Amino acid sequence: MAQPNYTSREAPPFSIRPAVPGDEGVLFELVKTLARYERLEHQVTGTVEALRIHLFGDHPVAEALLAEDGTDAIGFAMFFSTFSTFLTRPGIHLEDLFVLERHRRRGAGRALLSEVRRIAEARGAGRVEWNVLDWNASAIAFYLSLGAEVLPDWRICRMQLTFGRPPTST
């Protein structure tokens, strides 16, 4: 894998920070860009308001990190807590990790994933897990280069729930 375009003594050309209220709009735009990249734009049915509620409302169920180049958002990681019955420890599920194509190979994806890992370790988590589309060879290679294991025997099961519209207030 190509190394980032800065030396270890230089500051990276981006920063990583936790998302805060007010970031939901830029996060949702990044989510839509990710969906286009994954050819899943038709599956985006959420709203900025629903994202705000679930990230920053009275009962947050997910967290996000933003990668920024100056004041421009260039990527994000969205994750939530899980639990492993086998490990009897908490874990983190990385729902999405995405860096805009023009900003890839600068280390932002690695930095986002490293920060998720750091958060997981600080919380006593036993693992960080995520999914990757089988056609996304560059993402698979990236994850493998970081020491991740692609589990061959597991498949994602999903039950789509339709209890009406997403919430609109806290």
How would you sum up this structure, described in words?
- The chain has helices at residues 24-37, 48-56, 108-122, 137-145; strands at 15-18, 63-69, 72-84, 89-99, 128-130.
- It is globular, with a radius of gyration of 16 Å.
- Strand 2 (63-69) and strand 3 form a beta hairpin.
- Mean pLDDT is 90; it is low at 1-8.
- Helix 1 packs across helix 2.
- The protein has a single domain (15-145), classed as Gcn5-related N-acetyltransferase (GNAT) (Aminopeptidase), CATH 3.40.630.30.
- By secondary structure, it is an alpha+beta fold.
- The chain contains four helices and five strands; from the N terminus they run βααβββαβα.
- Helix content is 28%, strand content 22%.
Topology of this protein?
Blueprint: E1 15-18, H1 24-37, H2 48-56, E2 63-69, E3 72-84, E4 89-99, H3 108-122, E5 128-130, H4 137-145
Helix pairs in contact: 1-2
- Text of the CATH class: Alpha Beta
Q: Which residues sit in consecutive blocks of at least 5 with pLDDT less than 50?
A: 1-8
Strand fraction band?
Answer: 15-25%
Secondary-structure element series: EHHEEEHEH
Structural class: alpha+beta
Shape: globular
CATH architecture, by name, is 3-Layer(aba) Sandwich
Q: How is the biggest beta sheet arranged?
A: 5 strands, mixed
**What name does CATH use for the topology?**
Aminopeptidase
Instruction: Name the CATH superfamily classification.
Output: Gcn5-related N-acetyltransferase (GNAT)
Q: Report the strand count.
A: 5
Q: Considering DSSP H and I runs of 4 or more, what fraction of the residues is helical?
A: 25-40%
Spatial order of the strands forming the largest sheet:
1-2-3-4-5
SS field, number of helical segments: 4
Mean pLDDT: 90
Gap between N and C termini: 44 Å
Rg result: 16 Å
